């Protein structure tokens, strides 16, 4: 019984300071993904940006499942070669004259025999570019009352 004790203690070694710091340092892949998924818009009108994001999702065929204007969150889905889920956050940047919109699109992959499906993040730059182009167009038209 005591022979197994050193093995148990070996699993309890605390990570080094370098290991702890690197756990919170984003990788270049994560930074690139966040850049693709986010856009800055030169407005502080969160209601307008929420409406533009809702319209962009609907234009792309998404059904809105949830929208929390106070939290700046929209969730929608569509069926296109499988179920695609979109999550959008709209936030005003404090003390700055702009807002940031971040979107993630996931393919929901059912797992036979499992209770939960797997969400696979889509990484197609054209998908994100198309979404943000629609938001920009909608925000421009709304701002200029066109």
Strand and helix map with partners:
Blueprint (H helix, E strand, L loop, with lengths): L4 H6 L6 H7 L4 H10 E4 L4 H14 L3 E6 L4 E7 L3 E10 L6 E11 L8 E4 L3 H19 L3
Antiparallel strand pairs: 1-5, 2-3, 3-4, 4-5, 5-6
According to DSSP, the number of beta strands is 6
Radius of gyration using CA atoms only: 21 Å
Give the CATH architecture.
2-Layer Sandwich
Q: What are the secondary-structure elements, in order, as H or E? A: HHHEHEEEEEH
The first-level CATH class name: Alpha Beta
Describe the structure.
The protein is α+β, with helices and mostly antiparallel strands and 146 residues long. It has one domain (13-143): Kinase associated domain 1, KA1 (TATA-Binding Protein), CATH 3.30.310. Helix content is 38%, strand content 29%. It has 5 helices and 6 strands; from the N terminus they run H-H-H-E-H-E-E-E-E-E-H. It has helices spanning 5-10, 17-23, 28-37, 46-59, 125-143, and strands at residues 38-41, 63-68, 73-79, 83-92, 99-109, 118-121. Strands 1, 2, 3, 4, 5 and 6 form a 6-stranded antiparallel beta sheet that branches. Strand 4 and strand 5 form a beta hairpin. The protein is globular. The mean pLDDT is 87.
Which descriptors apply to this entry?
single chain; 146 residues; alpha+beta; TATA-Binding Protein; 5 helices; 29% strand
């Amino acid at each position: 019984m005591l022979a197994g004790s050193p093995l148990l203690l070996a699993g309890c070694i605390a990570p080094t300071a370098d290991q702890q710091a690197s756990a919170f340092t984003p990788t270049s892949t994560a930074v690139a993904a966040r850049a693709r998924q986010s856009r800055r818009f030169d407005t502080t009108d969160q209601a307008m940006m929420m409406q533009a994001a809702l319209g962009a999702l609907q234009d792309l065929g998404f059904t809105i499942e949830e929208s929390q204007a106070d939290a700046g969150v929209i969730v929608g889905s569509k069926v296109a070669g499988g179920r695609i889920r979109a999550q959008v956050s709209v936030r005003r940047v404090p003390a700055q004259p702009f807002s940031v919109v971040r979107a993630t699109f996931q393919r929901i992959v059912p797992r036979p025999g499992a209770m939960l499906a797997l969400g696979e993040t889509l990484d197609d730059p054209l998908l994100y570019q198309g979404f943000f182009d629609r938001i920009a167009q909608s925000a421009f038209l709304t701002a200029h009352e066109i």
